[in-house]
């Protein structure tokens, strides 16, 4: 029994079919790269929020230590507030950048993409950042 060429070689795809497959994967890679960028912004912002909230709290505790009653708590509060505002600004920019990019990518690809988990997570951290910033501004919370 002889083998035909069709039995050995898979069916050949046209150049247009190959290009379409590569293009759809390129759109997906671009979307995933955008998600990674958003997650990078979010990691940095989480660090800023953590330090921005912790530094003023640490200095409040230090003022209760004998001999450190005159610790520069206002400077620490200003530094913490600056870090919190920077984190909120970064997260706002990341959310805006992601939304604009996903809309442009969907328009270019001619298809819609599901909402990004990274975008939802970034919005949740943004809400946390806003809450903590208001908390520090109003000096609400544990003394």
TrEMBL record:
Membrane topology: Multi-pass membrane protein
Domain DUF202 per the UniProt entry, residue ranges: 29-97
TM regions (residue ranges): 40-59, 79-101, 113-138
First-listed, main subcellular location of the protein, grouped into a coarse class: membrane
Superkingdom of origin: Bacteria
InterPro entries named among the record's database cross-references: DUF202
Protein localization: Endomembrane system
Record keywords, A-Z: Membrane, Transmembrane, Transmembrane helix
Protein's name in the database: YidH family protein
């Amino acid at each position: 029994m002889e083998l035909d060429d069709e039995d050995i070689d898979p069916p050949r795809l046209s150049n247009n079919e190959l290009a379409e497959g590569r293009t759809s994967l390129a759109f997906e890679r671009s979307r995933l790269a955008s998600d990674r960028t958003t997650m990078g912004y979010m990691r940095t912002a989480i660090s800023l929020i953590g330090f921005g909230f912790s530094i003023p709290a640490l200095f409040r505790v230090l003022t209760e230590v004998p001999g450190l009653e005159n610790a520069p708590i206002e400077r620490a509060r200003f530094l913490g507030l600056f870090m919190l505002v920077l984190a909120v600004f970064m997260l706002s920019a990341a959310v805006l950048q992601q939304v604009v990019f996903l809309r442009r990518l969907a328009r270019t690809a001619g298809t819609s993409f599901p909402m990004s988990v990274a975008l939802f997570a970034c919005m949740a951290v943004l809400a946390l950042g806003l809450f903590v910033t208001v908390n520090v501004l109003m000096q609400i919370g544990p003394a």
